[in-house]
Amino acid sequence: MFTDMDSKATSAMARVSTSRPFGSRDPLANTGGRLSSNNLYRLRSCRLDGQHNRALGNAGEELAARWLTDHGFRVVARNLRTIYGELDVVAEKNGHVHVVEVKTRRGTGYGSPLEAIDHRKQEHLRRSTMAALAAGIPGLTRSIRGIHIDAMSILMSDGTAPVIEFVEDILA
Questions:
Q1: Is residue 6 classed as helix, strand or coil in its secondary structure?
Q2: Measured distance CA(76)–CA(70) in Å, rounded
Q3: Beta-carbon contacts of residue 162 (< 8 Å; ≥ 6 apart)
Q4: pLDDT (tens digit per residue) in 65-95
Q5: In this structure, what is the dihedral angle of CA atoms 91, 92, 96, 102, given to the nearest 10 degrees?
Q6: All structural domains of the chain
Q7: To 10 degrees, the CA torsion angle through 107, 110, 112, 118?
Q8: Tens digits of residue pLDDT in 25-49
Q9: Residue 162 carries which DSSP code?
Q10: What pairs with residue 150 in β-bridges?
Q11: Does the pLDDT at position 21 exceed 80?
């Protein structure tokens, strides 16, 4: 009698320990481990979208750095990491430090790229900028006369030239 109960308890514990947590991000979590063609498509599209978004973002940051250089800025750092996150582009012009948040999109189906810079993102930029300045930004050689947090919107449609919009001092 006890052996039967012990084996049932052991198999129940094995089921519990191998089950996935509720709300798992695993695309196969609700399939019992089966890989159907639909699940395979979802798995591939998640990976490709992530790679596509990174490539689009990198291309946008490259365009932003070139645009800033062409307009008299000196790019000091790109993708500068702080304890609060990452700053896309840090540039300098006439002793003023410009931290530029770059938003790149293929279209306006989800709104303007600048609309993605909400109050929460602005707070992140402010904190990251202060942390970077406190830690010291390599490449800044002159004394700082001012700090500006700016944004750049880049729309890259197929077959047309990119549309670039630069907005200075975006903090509300």
A1: helix
A2: 14
A3: 63, 154, 155, 156
A4: 999 999 999 999 999 999 999 999 999 999 8
A5: -20
A6: 59-167 (3.40.1350.10)
A7: -150
A8: 444 444 444 444 444 444 444 444 5
A9: P
A10: 100
A11: no
pLDDT of residue 168: 95
Q: Is the separation of the CB atoms in 87 and 125 below 8 Å?
A: yes
Helices (H), the chain: 2-18, 37-70, 119-135
What's the CA gap between 59 and 156, in Å, rounded?
9
**Six token digits for residue 136:** 């010291």
pLDDT of residue 49: 58
For residue 161, CA distances in Å to 69, 85, 102 come to 18, 31, 17
Per-residue three-class SS string for 105-140:
ECCCCCCCHHHHCCHHHHHHHHHHHHHHHHHCCCCC
Tokens representing residue 5 in the block: 């109960």
pLDDT surpasses 90 at 4:
no
Q: 172, 114 in Cβ contact below 8 A? A: no
Residue 117 has pLDDT above 80, yes or no: yes
Query: Which residues pair with residue 148 across a beta bridge?
Result: 98
SS3 5: helix
- Burial per residue of 41-61, b for 16 or more beta-carbon CB atoms within 10 angstroms, e otherwise: eeeeeeeeeeeeeeeebeebb
